Amino acid sequence: MSSTAAQPLLDGRTAVVTGGAQGIGLEIARAFVDAGARVVLGDLDLDAAQAAADGLGGREVARAVRCDVVKADEVDALLAEAVEGFGSLDVMVNNAGITRDATMRKMTEEDFDLVIAVHLKGTWNGTRKAAAIMREAKRGAIVNISSLSGKVGMVGQTNYSAAKAGIVGMTKAAAKEMAHHGVRVNAIQPGLIRSAMTEAMPQKAWDQKMSEIPMQRAGEPAEVASVALFLASDMSSYMTGTVLEVTGGRFM
């Protein structure tokens, strides 16, 4: 390699990704590893997370930790794996999430509370715990995964839309608190992204969503991952408190 070769964007840095065993989270982790980072995958499904970490290159570059993001002590343990196992915590991606869709008339209190807890409290735990470590180093990037549902509201998603909108407000508040400590906090709002979850959608619902997208196609997980990489890296060094939409132009 010539001495003029560009240094990888995340060379020597350590990133933690929640919900990292599959889907968008795994794709973000893969993009980070390709950019020179070491990653710790947090997920409720330890077996899937371990398989994902092995696929990314094994213990030297990727590790798996079982983590329920609603529980602060489990988030502490997840971040400790990055700091103690790899030597630093430079990037935090709060991606873990679930859906429990139903109209308000049919939604249970339990399904409302659970979605709010995982998305909103989980992202708060990840943000505050990572920020506490990063402020000591006077640097760091936090990337929160919101959703287009948090911008426009979706039928059957009063819980999910509320949580994803809350993540935007939280991101901006945290960005203001952490800016003078050298820690940046930004959010991504993906639209219709091709995944196991979205492909299980009824055809009619899929067609309806497709009709709203000017680019006339669903996005790929890698297209969210590349934006996460941008926000995690020094390429976005003067950006904090922003919300980047990855939607193919849907609901501009």
UniProtKB/TrEMBL annotation:
SMART domains: PKS_KR. Belongs to the short-chain dehydrogenases/reductases (SDR) family. This is 3-oxoacyl-[acyl-carrier-protein] reductase FabG. Its EC number is 1.1.1.100. Residues 13-196 form the Ketoreductase domain. One of its GO terms (molecular function) is 3-oxoacyl-[acyl-carrier-protein] reductase (NADPH) activity. Keywords: Oxidoreductase. InterPro entries: KR_dom, NAD(P)-bd_dom_sf, Sc_DH/Rdtase_CS, SDR_fam. The gene is fabG_21. Gene3D superfamilies: NAD(P)-binding Rossmann-like Domain (3.40.50.720). It comes from the Bacteria. PROSITE patterns: ADH_SHORT.
